[in-house]
Amino acid sequence: MKQPLLAFNDKGIYCAAADVYLDPWRAVPKAIITHGHADHSRWGHGSYITQHMNVPIIRHRLGDINVTGKDWGETFTINGVKFSFHPAGHIVGSAQVRVEHKGEVWVFTGDYKTEDDGLSTPYEVVKCHTFITENTFGLPAFKWTPQAEVMADVNSWWAQNRADGQTSILFGYTLGKAQRLLKHLDPDIGRIYTHGAVENMTQVIRQMVDLPETIRITPETRKEDLLGSIVLAPPSAHGSTWIRRMTPYVTGSASGWMAFRGHRRRRAIDKGFVLSDHCDWPGLLESIRATGAEKIICTHGYSDIFSTYLRELGYDARTEHTQYEGDEGDTEVRTAAEAEDEEGGTQ
Description:
Metallo-beta-lactamase, Chain A; 10 helices; Rossmann fold; alpha/beta
């Protein structure tokens, strides 16, 4: 039997012809990394290859690592196998990996979304024979409202809270969602404050994109300073001692999971905004159709349901197990350094 170009094993997605792994979840000698979220870029690999915008992000998270950055579409060859990075639109620096060998082309998406968020490099369709897709929101119930409408709702919520003399606390994961929210907040409403972990990552992202001014919350920050302002914080800050000194406040959360009734109540959030950095159901189907791929491999998320539906459409679709844990809301993955930041909120 012919060996597949990419195979799933206990360490990650392996290209035997090149002897390299894609987003491995265990330590390997050589890793190709799609983006900076901690379930996809883990510590301990011998060397890392990633899109150049992702280099400062993973260095911030992982420390002094051996990493090489590549431009969009730049072809690099390992043992005769051609690789290139193409925009995934998930977060800043997020990439799909195109793999070509002996006339066969595979694409590994990592995490991706097809809506242009005005911050990340927009998603690019890459033609291929086999397409490896995430399925974080692979159910028909997930259909996103356009970002412009969601952010108009966020800004209106903030303005009303300001008029009511309250602080707005908006939760979004530290890398990606926080900067996306920040990019589209209206600074004319008031001041934008940040939790220490959000500010640390935002300083890294500022090297690559223009973002509104923010103020880091420190022990010297007074409750009176925060009234009428908005605070961007990671979900883990909710219910912490850090947040209690901000009374009176109103909480909001931006996540695709807010599309589920009851999720906001279970999280004890006052206001939910459905805003995801992953594809919705129509986005997944359209992106797959556009690649021209006949073989589809479904990974993390609602993979069984989604692959069954794809087979009904005539695709050669199957599922594969991965250890990608997700990055939406209460599934946020944190490094030890970020956890320390979040507990104190002042670093």
